[in-house]
Design a protein that fits this description.
By secondary structure, the chain is an alpha+beta fold. It has a single domain, classed as Nucleoside diphosphate kinase-like domain (Alpha-Beta Plaits, 2-Layer Sandwich), CATH 3.30.70.141. It is built from 8 helices and 5 strands. Strands 1, 2, 3, 4 and 5 form a 5-stranded antiparallel beta sheet that branches. The chain starts with a strand and ends in a 5-residue tail after the last helix. The protein binds uridine-5'-diphosphate (UDP) and magnesium ion. Residues 74, 79, 83, 113, 131-132, 134, 137, 140 line the site of uridine-5'-diphosphate.
């Protein structure tokens, strides 16, 4: 399943116009620190309330191999050992969300890596004051999202379904 695709669904909006739904998908990892701190529901709710559709959701224990693959761009960094220990220490919650400009908008909601400098209102700004225990991961580009979704979810674990309130989430030309 592509992380980013545009699809004319052929349904009728409230005013009779065709509803065009932008289906872009991105991966979220609600990290072990958030799980331990009882923040999973509150963090997931932020994306639901924004209008993103949850199309995949699971809990898993990340292995060292999976951590090395997921954080391949960081394995040479001095903090990698701590990062690997942290993400493999306890289970986390993985989710795939879908909606208009999902990759970019989700990163805005997540906030910058250094949560100490993350604005209030962002997930990291509201729930963390750390660069390494920053509660959430989100894919940083459409290409990354496509790879990361496949890394964490089998095709059968992703769901195509209609949200009944879609016509209230987007205008027909969005
Ligand atoms: N990280 C860390 N120390 C650092 C930088 C990053 O522990 O100095 C961890 C942190 O958990 C971060 C993850 O490595 O979320 C991935 O880093 P990246 O630069 O990709 O940031 P992100 O995309 O998560 O904002
Ligand atoms: Mg990153």
């Amino acid at each position: 399943m592509d992380a980013c695709r545009k699809e004319v669904q052929g349904r009728r909006g409230q005013e009779g116009s065709e509803v065009i739904v932008m289906k872009e998908r991105t991966l979220l990892l609600i990290k072990p620190d958030a799980l331990q701190r009882g923040l999973v529901g509150e963090i997931l709710a932020r994306f639901e309330k924004k209008g993103f559709k949850i199309v995949g959701l699971k809990m898993l224990h990340v292995s060292k191999e999976l951590a090395k693959e997921h954080y391949a761009h960081l394995v040479d960094k001095p903090f990698y050992h701590d990062l690997e220990k942290f993400v493999t220490s306890n289970p986390l919650v993985a989710a795939v969300v879908e909606g208009k400009e999902a990759v970019e908008v989700v990163r805005l909601i997540v906030g910058p890596t250094n949560a100490s400098k993350a604005p209030g209102g962002t997930v990291r700004g509201d729930f963390s004051n750390s660069t390494s225990r920053n509660v959430i991961h989100a894919s940083d580009s459409k290409e990354t999202a496509e790879k990361e979704i496949k890394r964490f979810f089998k095709p059968a674990e992703l769901f195509d379904y209609k949200l009944n309130n879609e016509q209230y989430l987007y205008a027909s030309d969005e």
